[in-house]
Amino acid sequence: MVTENIWHDAIHFKPDLFHSFWTERLDQKRNILIIVGLGWDPRMTALTDAIHSIGGDGLRKIHLLRFKPSPDFVSPYVDFIRKNSERLDQILENWAEKSIVDIITRREGNFYIGDEGISQFYTKFNISQFTDVLVDISSLPKSLYFTLLFILVKMAQRDNKAVNVYAIACQDAELDGQILESADDTRLLKGFKGQLTQYSKKTIPIIWAPVIEKNSTISLRKIYDKIEPQDVYPVLPFPSRNPRNDDDLLIEYRRIFCDEWNLNPMNIIYSAEDDPIDVYSSLINLYHKQQEVLEPLGGISMVISALASKVSSIGAFMAAFDGKIAIAHAIGRHDPPEQMDFSYWDEHQINRFKDNMHSIWLTGEPYEL
């Protein structure tokens, strides 16, 4: 079975080429929308700052996604959030128009509705006024940006083929690995139900491919118990900036892999930490291979979970979108590293963030027939 993957020749500009690409890109008039999340993450303003520094002519608009569980919620990290907000306003002054998009993420009973809220806003939004839409996932939770990317890519492919949509992230795998995520609510994200309309109805085998980084034990157990897969294919980062990263993860999750899941070591998949295209290829190839093998029995239903860095998660999104694969996510709080202080916003750190930007081109000119 030969399958043409949507992003088999996708374009990924790594940090060494990010600045030169956007400098050349903005040398001509471009109408740009940047979508960014208002959060405590010090990487929040890196992309906007980089684009502002490059300059260029054309429309410049910012959508600031202000997401919180209730209208009157006050984050325990309000000082960090205020720091990001003030810095963003300084960058935007006399340069870009800012619109605030409020997303309430919880309803009565603590039920998660963030993906519903972002869907309701952007399915009604007209992106045709822009040549380039940049989704900065650096300070957005996966439970929001997976659905956001799904909507924008779908709209661009269907009705706005001239609109270029990019997923952009500041990669800091060490920082991502220190962010603590609770797992209050495990569910399929909007746009990514796959063939799992109900967890309780399993007419074909379910395979699960979690893309893993550190500190995900609780999420792994909760998702596993929820979907009850017949087989698990963990995706570990290799090569990685830390040469021992994959070994450390095998040690951290040894009990789960060996004692709880009885995992076949041959099921472990390795994909490059800084390459979302490699993650995408690994996942989509796994899906097609398993479908082909089990086609006589009705095929398989695959579920992906992105429990890894921002850049790796883009590859997970691409595979899920391309293969119409379900995404199961453990949703909860995102707490910064305990040692985080305002030194993360000093000039050296901000420049380091700007020098570690990844840009993945998802729709538009490279894909026009």
Task: Outline the structure in words.
It is globular, with a radius of gyration of 20 Å. The chain folds into two domains: 11-171 and 337-367, 3-Layer(aba) Sandwich (Rossmann fold), CATH 3.40.50.80; 183-331, 3-Layer(aba) Sandwich (Rossmann fold). The protein has helices at 15-25, 46-54, 78-92, 114-122, 142-158, 173-178, 217-227, 245-252, 254-260, 276-293, 310-323, 347-354; strands at residues 11-13, 32-37, 60-68, 97-104, 106-107, 111-112, 132-136, 164-170, 180-181, 185-188, 206-212, 231-232, 235-237, 269-271, 301-307, 326-331, 334-335, 357-361. It has a seven-stranded mixed sheet, sandwiched between helices. It has 369 residues and is an alpha/beta fold. Helices cover 36% and strands 22% of the residues.
Q: What is the strand tally? A: 18
Q: What's the average pLDDT?
A: 92
CATH architecture of the largest domain: 3-Layer(aba) Sandwich
Query: What is the CATH top level name of the largest domain?
Result: Alpha Beta
The portion of residues assigned to helices is: 25-40%
Brief summary:
By secondary structure, the chain is of the alpha/beta class. The protein contains 12 helices and 18 strands.
Name the features:
369 residues; alpha/beta; Rossmann fold; five-stranded mixed beta sheet; 18 strands
